Amino acid sequence: MEIRDELKYSEDHEWILIEDGIATIGISDYAQDAMGDVVFVELPEVGSHVDAGQTFGVVESVKTVSDIFAPVSGEVVEVNKDLPDTPDSVNSSPYDDAWMVKIKLTDVTQVEALMDAEAYRSCIAKQ
Amino acid sequence: MKTTPLNNVHRQIGARMVDFGGWDMPVQYTGVIDEHLAVRKAAGLFDVSHMGEIEVRGQGALDYIQELTTNNAAKLVDGQVQYSAMCYENGGVVDDFTLYRFAEGHYLFCVNASNIEKDFAWMQGVLEKGGFPDINLTNLSDSYAQLALQGPASDAILGRLTDTDLASLVFYNFVEGEVAGVKTIISRTGYTGESGFELYFAPEHAEKIWHALMEAGASDGLQPVGLGARDTLRLEKKYALYGHELSSQITPLEGGIAWITKLDKPSFIGKEPLCRMKEAGVPRRLVGLRMTEPGVPRENYPIFVDDEEVGIVTSGTMSPSLKVGISLALIATGHHTLGTEVSIGIRNRRVAAEVVKTPFV
């Protein structure tokens, strides 16, 4: 189970990379493994606004439908356009090819509520 | 939670286990798609020991079974299997199952795991109403483990472990033989649409037979297969699953098993309401839908024609073989014909789909 030290994590198993006030978001290796073969990804539209805790997308495996929750609030400035055509990359490359959205943060302090890699490790160890 | 005799094996080889109707069962080993494709291209081994076995013995067994079941059991000869169902008085389905005839006065029902107690009680109730004084019913579910070996390589693999002449064993027939030295009922049946076998034997031999088969099939690409792929494999072939396509609220005429519902039989429980339904026109039909836009149909999603809700998805998935969303659906008669364009309500959207020929593959 890969957990990258440079990333932040949410309790809903999203990873978040913060760079220059932009949060790049995907789902963690743990989450993709729990879902199984991902066959469908639905992402929000560029320009839409999301609030922390709100559903902004859906990832479906053969067996399950999982909402993706925004870990932070802001404007969607970019989505991974390749992902709907290559949903299996969520399984093969959750931290790289399968990034989902970039959100321009409206409240930088929300980042403080996220877990660092060490906290996330102990979070999933309990599950 | 109930376990099969292979529970330890599943855990040792890293299966993901789920609660399936009170049974601790493997849902996947390597992954649903990988396992699905292995069965289509090579072979897969399924632990289906959770399935139930109910024995009917005694003089008059055929008459009892004819009253109990929708198909014509009189057509069965010794060593033959029949797909059948039993209905409530109102025509709703109690269960669907395979029926094995060993001899005159000796039959075995292989029933759905989640329905074992319900089926046995229903069968007992029919017996107690009278008319069948010499019939004995026995729930043998704990006396049998069951493995399904499915896929084009199944004959070659099983042939290495048995002296039984598999080539002369035709579809929906069975023989009592030995597999890896263990007394086994070898049945050429299955739930995948591929050639293959269902094997019944005493539970204490389950690990021995499992390992013998996995070893014998290694060179052919035999893989263990979980319930996840069992579901996608049967869905691609439009095989009904109780609780989805069939239930106490769905008649066999609606749920796609009219072909095993013999309304010309003199009598069976549920026949009258089913005859009336047929005469009045079956109100809804089970069809196959294929998405024509991206999306994955799921159970209970509504189906629309224009703005009218005309049906409901009973099972759906992304087909591993076709890589497109497919579903089985109960749809109002009139909208059920091939080529009908519908839309499926997926979350807040309507996504286009079409009634297509089944099986899907």
Index terms:
heterodimer, A: 127 residues, alpha+beta, six-stranded antiparallel sheet, three-stranded antiparallel sheet, 3 helices, 9 strands, 16% helix, B: 361 residues, six-stranded mixed sheet, six-stranded antiparallel beta barrel, 34% strand, globular
Write a structural description.
The complex is a heterodimer of chains A (127) and B (361). By secondary structure, chain A is α+β, with helices and mostly antiparallel strands. Helices cover 16% and strands 35% of the residues of chain A. In chain A, the strands form 2 sheets. A 6-stranded antiparallel beta sheet of chain A has the order 1-2-3-9-8-5. Chain A is globular. The mean pLDDT of chain A is 96. In chain B, 21% of the residues lie in helices and 34% in strands. Chain B is α+β, with helices and mostly antiparallel strands and 361 residues long. The two termini of chain B are 36 Å apart. In chain B, a hairpin with a 2-residue loop joins strand 15 and strand 16. Chain B is globular, with a radius of gyration of 21 Å.
Could you give the topology of this structure?
The complex is a heterodimer of chains A (127) and B (361).
Chain A: E1 8-9, E2 14-19, E3 22-27, H1 29-35, E4 38-42, E5 49-50, E6 55-61, E7 65-69, E8 74-79, H2 89-92, E9 101-105, H3 117-125
Antiparallel strand pairs in A: 1-2, 2-3, 3-9, 4-6, 5-8, 6-7, 8-9
Chain B: H1 7-12, E1 16-20, E2 23-28, H2 32-41, E3 43-47, E4 52-57, H3 61-68, E5 80-87, E6 93-103, E7 106-111, H4 116-128, E8 136-139, E9 145-150, H5 154-159, E10 174-179, E11 182-187, E12 196-201, H6 206-217, E13 222-224, H7 227-236, H8 271-280, E14 284-291, E15 302-305, E16 308-318, E17 325-332, E18 341-346, E19 349-356
Parallel strand pairs in B: 3-13
Antiparallel strand pairs in B: 1-2, 3-9, 4-7, 4-8, 5-6, 6-7, 9-12, 10-11, 11-12, 14-17, 14-19, 15-16, 15-18, 16-17, 18-19
Helix pairs in contact in B: 2-7
